[in-house]
Amino acid sequence: MSVTATPFLGYKFVMWTGDFNNYPTHDFSFRITSHIKADAVFHKLLPCVSPNESNPLLEMEILPTKNNGVKGGRFGYGRGRFHKGVDLSAPVGTPLYAMFDGDVVSTISRYDQSTPWGDYKKTYGSQDAAGNRVNIVSKVDGKDVVFSYWHLAEVYVRTNDKVKAGDIIGTVGTTGNAGDSDCAGPHLHLTTYDKKAYNKNKKEEGDYFNPEIFLYTKFDNQGKAYRLCIEKK
Fold first, then answer.
1. C-alpha angle 220/64/116, rounded to 5°?
2. What is the Cβ-side half-sphere exposure of residue 36, based on CA atoms within 13 angstroms?
3. Most buried in the list 34, 68, 72, 172, measured by CB within 10 Å?
4. How many CA atoms lie within 13 A of 131 on its CB side?
5. What is the number of alpha carbons within 13 Å of residue 16 lying toward its C-beta?
6. What digits encode the pLDDT tens for the residues 197-224?
7. pLDDT per residue over 119-143, tens digit each?
8. How far, in Å, CA of 4 to CA of 158, rounded?
9. Contacts for 127 with CB less than 8 Å, ≥ 6 apart
């Protein structure tokens, strides 16, 4: 995982490379000019996490439906049709974390982040709207649950990998229909459903769970996070 600082006063900063999970807090200073000094601190970045559970993102906000102010990014019928997951707004390249310990059962990483939705549909078909994705099966309260992360820019895990809660599994992107010009912005589409439905050609409405029940965050009616790192039980 690499991070490049943005240019400042025409100066391009050096690239920093490190492991978000394990890189220790580190601070340093350097001169931009003889009279301008810059200070930087790299922290150990982790989302809300308990021994076996984690949020997928460091910051949480539900994506609105474009131009209408309705938080149609929620699970359910906020768009007038059943939305099978929750859309969590995040900039492209935002680290994405595994929510629970689990097994990676499938990944797709073939899609180009720069491909617009119109070209994507012509090549891959409109039914494959998920783009790059990771599917992880985790045991939650004795039940096998599939956590499906869509629209990724990059995928960092492979099928049959074992992950721990808080491991970085990829980055947020706009692959699939998240690249549509009508989309409200880059986001993580998070879907959760019963593992028994994993291999069904068509999953039924009752097979899906509201992903919000697995998050360490509470949202207000506008989709803004108002309680972070809560205990769910």
1. 150
2. 5
3. 172
4. 31
5. 16
6. 888 878 888 899 999 999 988 888 888 8
7. 998 888 877 889 999 999 999 999 9
8. 26
9. none
Please say if the pLDDT value at position 1 is more than 50.
no
pLDDT digits (tens, 9 = 90+) for 182-202: 888 899 999 999 998 888 878
Q: What is the pLDDT of residue 127?
A: 78
- Both structure tokens of 118: 């119109």
151 is catalytic: no
The pLDDT value given to residue 6: 38
Identified catalytic residue from 83, 151, 187, 189:
187
178/194 Cα distance (integer angstroms): 24
Beta bridge partner(s), residue 16: 3
Q: Cβ–Cβ contacts within 10 Å for residue 66, how many?
A: 14
Q: What is the DSSP code string of 98-150?
A: -SBSEEEEEEE--S-TT--HHHHHHHH-TT--S-EEEEEEEEETTEEEEEEEE
SS3 156: coil
DSSP per residue, 34-99: TTEEEEEEE-----SB-SSBB-SSSS-BBPPPTTT---TTSSBSTTSS-B-EEEEE--TT-EEE-S
Pull the structure tokens for residue 92: 């492209």
Taking Cα atoms as reference points, which of 35, 18, 34 lies closest to residue 26? Answer: 18
